[in-house]
Amino acid sequence: MIDRTQSGLVAKVVAIALIAVFAPRYSTGEDTTPQVVLNTSKASPRSVESLTERALLRDYEFAWVSLEQALESNSTAPLSGLFAGSADAWLNEAVTSQRRSGLTSRYLDQSHKVEAVFYAPEGDMIELHDTADYRLQVLDGSKTIHDEHVVVRYVVLMTPGADRWVIRQFQAVPEF
Amino acid sequence: MALALSVGALCLAGKIAAAQDADLRAPSSAVAGHAASIATTGSGTATFYLVGPSIALKRDVHLGEELSLSAKELQSAGKYVAIVCAATCRSVGFFVAPTKPLNLIFLVHPSRAPVGQNDVVSGVALPFDEFHNLVLAPATVDFQLSAKGSAPVSHQVLTQNGIAWFHTNSGRTAGALQLTAAINDVSARRVVQQVASDPCSLRIKGQRTPKGIVVETEPVRDCTGNPVPDGTVVTFTAKDGKDTSTVDAPIKQGIARAQMTATGSVVISAASGVVMGNELHLSAQ
After folding, report:
1. B272: containing domain
2. pLDDT of B108 above 90
3. For chain B, what is the total number of helices (H) and then of strands (E)?
4. For B161, how many CA atoms within 13 A lie in the half-sphere containing its CB?
5. What is the CATH number of the domain that holds B147?
6. What's the CATH number where A88 sits?
7. CB-based contact A138 B54, cutoff 8 Å
8. In terms of domains, do B217 and B245 share one?
9. For residue A146, which residues of chain B lie inside 8 Å, CB to CB?
10. Alpha carbon B17 to its chain's center
11. Which of A157, B188, B214, B276 could form a disulfide with B106 if both were Cys (CB 3.0 to 4.6 A apart)?
């Protein structure tokens, strides 16, 4: 027969175990959703239409999610359809060489402040300046060899594809 | 015993030497496609990593020596992180800049433009180096436009954020407009076909024949005298008392021709696009 003190203790242990199992993952996990803010007010010579702005924001954010997944998993599949030209070639090479070297990288806690600086007269190309704030981790196998909070400036060229904007050029620069 | 202790001490010293932390000095002005080196301090062996826009390599190195980075490893412009791990890991970041322009991407719109229109032709030029890096350093792009029968026109535009652009009016004469963008000896050429604008004035003539009324236009031209393309539709309308009939006829070799039926007095007119022609009044048969 279990006395009241023992049953109370057992109940506490069970409660703690249940909380540990069912507590929301994000209370201790890393935020993987990039925060992207896009400003198109300075784009010229063509103004960016509001629907275009929404599409750009959606596609640019998705591209970064995919880039992160590709470099963390060492798979080129997430990059498909979101990058073209040099950007696609470079990222594919980065994934391939990571795989060859046994390395992976993570782009955590991403925050992007993006400004459109050029929008072609016919709307077939846009240049963005992205001040990207994230935590870069590089791992050799399971060992973290580099963990740094960085702010990196990217010059990005995007062109409209069949159903989305794709990134054609993706180049980090020391300053804009 | 003393010998064993000495050997043990030497081994331990060797391990400490291998585990010494290294300091790194990045290349000060790395350029795409050019070899560079990273200076290191310390001694012993370590593992070197280089992570860049299109590369992630790993190799064993000796500390205290310069770590060579080959031209191929530094082809992509952007940010690189060099990491050396011995007892702990140290890192240094550096940028690789593009080299000089060797290719010009030149986007021109439209492929066909009506003559006599303002700012209807536009061009955007982007310089890239031989490794497909966008050259962001300001460069002067020389845009040249030439068409048959017109003096060539030149615009010089300094790139901003790696881009130079222009827009211009189409000419007065139909034909090929040659556009060239050039930076020093690197150039790209495009062609815009200038075509006739909308018909400017329509003149028609006609006569009764045993089979009906044959009506045709005079040669149809735009306001600058260019023949309107074959296939442009002209609509002929015949009003015969209360009845109205229409015939659409395409222009062939500059003229649209139609046959209409009407027995009484008839008024025939023609239109193409927004242009109306003269009226023909034909009396009853």
Report:
1. 199-282
2. yes
3. 1, 26
4. 24
5. 2.60.40.1930
6. 3.10.450.240
7. no
8. yes
9. 49, 51, 81, 83, 89, 91
10. 57
11. B188
**Chain A touched by B120 (CB under 8 Å):** no
Residue B157 and residue B111 in one domain: yes
CA-to-CA distance for B130 and A22, rounded, in angstroms?
55
- Candidates A79, A103, A146, partner chain B, best to mutate (most B CBs within 10 A): A146
Q: Are residues B85 and B111 in the same domain?
A: no
Question: CA A95 to CA A101: how far, in whole Å?
Answer: 10
Best mutation target among A101, A135, A156 (most B Cβ atoms within 10 Å) is: A101
pLDDT tens digits for B91-104? 999 999 999 999 99
Please tell me if residue B283 touches chain A, with a CB cutoff of 8 Å: no
Q: Give A97→chain B minimum CA distance, Å.
A: 5
State the smallest CA–CA distance between residue A26 and chain B in angstroms.
29
Q: How many domains does chain B have?
A: 3
- A5 within some domain: no
CA distance B95 to B26: 9
Higher-confidence residue: A76 or B13? A76
Report which secondary-structure segment, H or E, holds B273.
none
Residue B2 forms part of a structural domain: no
| Assembly ipTM | 0.83
What CATH code is carried by the domain that includes residue B26? 2.60.40.10
Min Cα–Cα distance to chain A from B223, Å? 26
Question: Looking at this protein, which amino acid is placed at residue A61?
Answer: E
Whether residue B5 lies inside any domain: the answer is: no
Could you say which of B195, B211, B235 is where a domain stops? B195
* CA distance to A39, A130, B188, per residue, from A57 (Å): 10, 12, 32
Across the interface, do A97 and B83 touch by the CB < 8 Å criterion?
no
Phi, psi (degrees; rounded to nearest 5) at B87? -65, -45
A62 to each of A32, A98, B178, how far by Cα in Å?
A: 12, 22, 40
Does the beta-carbon distance from A122 to B54 stay under 8 Å?
Answer: no
Sequential DSSP letters for B133-188: -B--S--EEEEEEEETTS--EEEEEE-BTTBEEEEE---SS-EEEEEEEEETTEEE
B211 plus B277 within the same structural domain: yes
Tokens of A14: 């069970």
User: If you ran DSSP here, which 8-state letter would residue A102 be given?
Assistant: T
Last residue of a domain, one of B32, B64, B97: B97
A29-82 residue pLDDT tens? 455 689 999 999 999 999 999 999 999 999 999 999 999 999 999 999 999 999
B59 found inside a domain: yes
